[in-house]
């Protein structure tokens, strides 16, 4: 019979799934929309900011004669609170991602950390390399630590050849990476969605405002209300300005976060390469 090579034993990853609550993804959008309405209705739409405040219509009172540009935003219509809510969502999720990614980056430079680990591995000092991971305390350090634990196990493993040991280390790194990356990318979908949807929602508000302005002009008979038309158009354009500003901020924050995540991902990839190459060269 043909001789068969022993197969690598399957061992569970030493990295446990991260426990995280997804409650912010459900609650934050609702709270932001409600807060956006409250800002639009009670702050921007404060009756003291209008020369002719409405006494009826609690949900959407039709105040007239705004005393300044700030209160003129109120006349942009019911789309404005939605846009304000989206702006608040950008702020909330930007802060949440900033805190998460800052923690994932860990302490110190990722490249310096990898060089230190490479130095300790070259001197066959795995315990010192593990202590560097404890100091780093980031996603790269977590993945490297999982790989180093398997690395240490494989040094004394006698039932596998070098190639199988390297594959075991590589698998451990891949499993640890699969547990780290979702936490980094979580909630970025809100920023990417607002980037594209914000401008469309603003355009909807502008179109609605323009329709109302031209309809009022048509009912009045034309030329005598051209000044009112100009005011109506300027009010409608507040929707566009607010939507473009919100989308621009969301795009900037999204690009900042994806760039930082890319640097972490590159560090994780380099960690896996470091471990496999080190083991293959030192423990043939």
Walk me through the structure:
With 284 residues, this protein is an all-alpha fold. It has one domain (24-55, 66-282). The chain has nine helices and two strands. It has helices at 23-44, 69-72, 79-105, 110-122, 126-136, 139-155, 162-185, 188-220, 226-282; strands at residues 50-52, 64-66. A two-stranded antiparallel sheet has the order 1-2. The longest helix has 57 residues, at 226-282. The protein is rod-shaped and about 95 Å long.
How are the elements arranged and paired?
Blueprint: H1 23-44, E1 50-52, E2 64-66, H2 69-72, H3 79-105, H4 110-122, H5 126-136, H6 139-155, H7 162-185, H8 188-220, H9 226-282
Antiparallel strand pairs: 1-2
Helix pairs in contact: 1-3, 3-8, 3-9, 4-5, 4-9, 5-6, 6-7, 6-9, 7-9, 8-9
């Amino acid at each position: 019979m043909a001789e068969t090579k022993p197969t690598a034993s399957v061992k569970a990853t030493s990295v446990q799934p991260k426990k995280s609550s997804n409650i912010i993804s459900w609650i934050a959008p609702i709270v932001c929309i409600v807060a956006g309405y409250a800002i639009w209705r009670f702050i921007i739409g404060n009756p003291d900011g209008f020369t002719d405040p409405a006494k009826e219509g609690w949900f959407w009172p039709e105040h007239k004669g705004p005393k300044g540009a700030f209160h003129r935003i109120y006349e942009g219509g019911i789309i404005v609170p939605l846009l304000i809510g989206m702006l608040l969502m950008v702020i909330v999720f930007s802060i949440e991602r900033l805190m998460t990614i800052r923690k994932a980056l860990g302490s110190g430079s990722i490249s310096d950390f990898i060089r230190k680990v490479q130095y300790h591995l070259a001197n066959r000092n795995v315990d010192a390399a593990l202590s560097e991971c404890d100091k780093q305390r980031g996603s790269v350090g977590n993945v490297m630590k999982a790989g180093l634990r398997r690395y240490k196990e494989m040094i004394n493993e006698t039932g596998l050849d070098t190639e199988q040991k390297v594959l075991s280390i590589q698998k451990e790194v891949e499993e640890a990476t699969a547990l780290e990356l979702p936490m980094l990318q979580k909630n970025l979908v809100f920023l990417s969605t607002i980037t594209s949807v914000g401008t469309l929602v603003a355009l909807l508000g502008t179109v609605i405002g323009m329709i109302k302005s031209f309809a009022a002009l048509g009912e009045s008979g034309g030329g005598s209300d051209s000044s009112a038309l100009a005011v109506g158009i300027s009010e409608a354009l507040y929707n566009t300005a607010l939507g473009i500003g919100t989308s621009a901020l969301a795009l900037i924050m999204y690009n900042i976060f994806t760039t930082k995540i890319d640097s972490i991902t590159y560090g994780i990839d380099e960690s896996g390469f470091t471990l496999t190459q080190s083991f293959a060269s030192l423990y043939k």
